[in-house]
Amino acid sequence: MLVRFFFELRSAGVPVSLTEFLSLLQALEARVAFCSAEEFYWLARLALVKDERHFDRFDRVFAEHFAGAERLFQKLVAEVPAEWLQSLAQRLFTEEERAKVESLGSWDKLLETLRQRLEEQKERHEGGNKWVGTGGTSPFGSGG
Amino acid sequence: MSTSRFTGTDRYIATDDLRMAVNAAVTLARPLLIKGEPGTGKTQLALEVAEALGRPIFEWHVKSTSKAQQGLYEYDAVSRLRDSQLGDARVADIRNYIVRGKLWEAFESEVQPVLLIDEIDKADIEFPNDLLRELDRMEFYVHETRELVRARHRPIIIITSNNEKELPDAFLRRCFFHYIRFPDQETMTKIVEVHYPNLKRELLAEALGAFYKVRETPGLKKKPSTSELLDWIKLLLAEDIPSEVLRSDDPKKAIPPLHGALLKNEQDVHLFEQLVFLNRRVR
Which of A25, A32, A58 to substitute to test the interface with B, most B CBs within 10 Å? Predict the structure, then answer.
């Protein structure tokens, strides 16, 4: 996944070299950033972009690339068939847990709620998207 | 080697991304290149990192006439010639005439040091490239004494640039890069509070408001920076100017008092006064 990111950056005009990409992988291995998406963003930018004039381009490619990954994950979750989930539940859940689920409505309702929550999270995340250059106020962007 | 993380010090507010940059550079032993507007604490950062991690610091303040070789050493041939003419015994050992540069001093440090290469863009374009080999291999050869100088500990290298020149690609590729953005109001509040802990909240808020407004004036040659803000606040406190005076609702008082501390350029002062005047007429 990161290799594709590397090539996407290059096609967007951010002159990343192979050595710089490898240094990012090194840093990830050394666990310089491992908990948050934000830390990963800063680390990637630190290792790959050496001119602040390219920050906007980097932001765009980063947002597109990693939003894409998130979308894929959501798609996977959304496509989990209800019957599969139900049979799994029969096997793993106890009587009380099953009753609890029933109290929330049907299994379909449960899946629906899960999908909704993911949508909300996605919106919130996009609403609070710090790294996408917001409205050209970045001092070193094309709009700034 | 201690791997204590850098989180800023009492007197230096470091944003999260800056902290990440320092820690990444230290962990991976890569030089950290810092750019940013003048007055955003680029040089100060190296000093604070040294203090926070408890390491000695070697500062190389680059000038337009600086050559990469000077960071390693210089051979003072003139003194040697003079001494030989005077019959001084020191002439026998050439080592007496080798003047060590900052890189050499940093290499000799018993403890891992911080090496600051300040304003690297001041020197000519070949300067960063001339240092590449030494930065990579952490060693260099002294021709005069036929010795190889190796770094005892790889220094933490912090390089600052004012963006006056483009730096060569080969050099940039070896560094991690961080751009210190001008602090936003929230960060700036913390910075001011560190320097003026007893400052009244209202005065601080009003001063910051006025300060950012001045910065937004279009066409300024030199926007006021953090150091100018701190100086200005010092003056306001010294002159005992109350916060009401700073409130810019009143068109008559739209020019902040003592603005000479913020705008150092005559043209900027004229520009600012003109805009205020125009504003007044529009109302």
Answer: A32
